[in-house]
Amino acid sequence: RSAAAVLSSLYTAPAHPPPAPMTTETRTAAAGPSRTAPVADPLEQKTLHIFVSRALQKILREAPKKYTELRKACIEVIEELKAVGDGQLPAEADLAAPSPTGPTPSAAQLQQAAAGAEAAAAVEAEEGGAGAEAAAILSPAPSGREPATPSFSSPDHDADPDGTAAAAARMALDDVAPVPGTDRYFVPLRLACESKLPRIMEVSLHCIQKIIAYGYVRGKVAGEKPFVDVVMETICSCKDEEDKEVQLQIVQAVNTAVTSAVTAVHDTTLLLAVKTCFYIYLVSKNGTIQKTANATLTQMLDVVFARLESPGASSMAQKDAFLVFRSLCKLSMKPLPEPLPADDSIELRSKLLSLQLLYSIIASSGERFRGGEKFVWAIRQYLCLSLLKNGVSPIPAILQLSLDIFVTLIKYFKAHLKSEIGVFFSNILLRILESSNSSGPQKRLTIQALRVLVAEPQLMVDLFLNYDCDLEGKGIFTSMCDGLSRLTLTLQALSETTEQDAQLKQLALETLVAIADSMVAWERDVKAEGAGAAVTPVGQRPPSIADSSSVSMVGPEPSPVHRGGGEAAGEAGQSPGGGEAGGEVTAVVASRESVDFEAMFHRKHEVHEGVIKFNMKPKRGIRYLREVCGLEDTPQAVARFLRETDGLDKRAVGDYLGEGEDFCKQVLYAYVDSIDFANLTFDQALRRFLTHFWLPGEAQKIDRMMEKFAERYCSQNEGVFANADTAYVLAYSLIMLNTDAHSSQ
Question: Known catalytic residue: 76?
Fold first, then answer.
């Protein structure tokens, strides 16, 4: 049995029925007349005494005499326990029955079970600077301005609209009266953890784990700080100890606290617990401890996100899940050093573990995680950025996990991530597929990921409708098929062996066949359901990536060439109701009206052809766009096309704007008037102006452009120059000086 399975079986909940939820009335009854005079449960006290007394006796025997404060604290508590018990310490046989939470196994049991799964690796070599490296990895990286974190004052779902249930739940756990004496009994245990003596620390941590498991860590201590926070800080402060017994006890105690049904570990304390297990996994070279820490992290995250999906989940559960998810995303974005680290390096293991945990969270996520606005926001802000950074990694293990996460995101979150999916396809998958610099493993893993994606017929239709038919988008479906086709036809696809090259070609060909099979299956399913195909002029569009009210899926107002203005456009840019279609396909399909996607697809190719013609001959390209693509014959429409259309050559734009024809001059005036120079210094405004195109080489063209620029600048910044002529002379002079400064003649 694996260590994860062993750990899971050891922490199985006991057969005792769970306690009823604690309300204000039951909390008051349990607390007695006041917080200062709680009603003691004799059986509960007796159980606590047996744990503490046995542990302190062992600590007292092991502690050297120089640890006077520790020995004194142990003696005082032991004497107090003897006085309470009429001079007799409780016997082992008198131990109370387990509480509903159930005790977790001892460190010895956990170690023995894990050893049965796999023999522990020897820890003979010095750890060196491993602790410092792991601490640096787990510390937050200084990055630019952090995006604003969404508020968790109220949950996404209506279980707790005003957040009072969350506050009451936390208060119910924090304000429960502690078992009398627990805070005093904890003092020698804390001192033992601070002693840095492995044997004493092991005994203390084992006792702390027991009192957590039995539900005795509750209420608040002096200063109104939750007792569980104090206990967790003490446990996690021991993480630098290299002794494997101590590390196992830390992992066991942390897991018990986080997964307990009665211990409230939330917010920063929860993050501290997760980072402690993460740290122990990184610094330990013992195979058993690594497996146990990994399994403990998985179990704790399962509990955290299971609480999020539970009925009536509070805003505190949402915040806990959000904080853990964000921390893992940040850990996965930590850059690797150059040259690439070894397989057993801390940096690489940290990145791999964080990606593994993120994949586990996404793959097992529930409806509240998938539909919560805060979590979708976190995926956009953090996880997608992590995937873009790790998706180009030359290390196969990192690339494999990144692709697995991306495939899972498409499965569950495609309705929210249209723009992000398009970026990942264009910048990662298609680039690896088409680049001659990509390695064999990179191409193979990419094609395997595509092979999984193309097996879903509806996804293929979604990609085509939302990207290939989008007038502003990249043709993802077409580029994917072209890339796979070229790969199968290339004589030598890789600089690898002939056998590896043949395997890659076969995999690419199988993916192309799978695409064709998916198209046939989708058409068969549509016909079976009695629905028309989505690409016909009267067909109803199927559910797709664009089915979302997400802000990222709302495109800008379309440019004139995309709206169309004549019969040559085939009326593809208009919905049946006569309204104008958006520049993004989502603006069309959001209305769920019938759309001629086939005409939009062909029109997109016509616009692309017009861009190519414009880059070769600007005037001929504009004429083609008017006649074929329906570009409006107005200076404002042409100027907008030149500013907003991707793929235009800046040299061609500059040549067209500098022409001396009346229409070209009007286009230049409209073009300059569309640029905002308000509140900019003169040099800043000139730089902004010249970022949109390249200045032509003829002096007359430059003269016309600088004259209009000076007029526009003075109209928006009154008082800077006496008149526009002064600004014109200065602008023209700057251009000439800049040319002379960078000219080789």
Answer: no
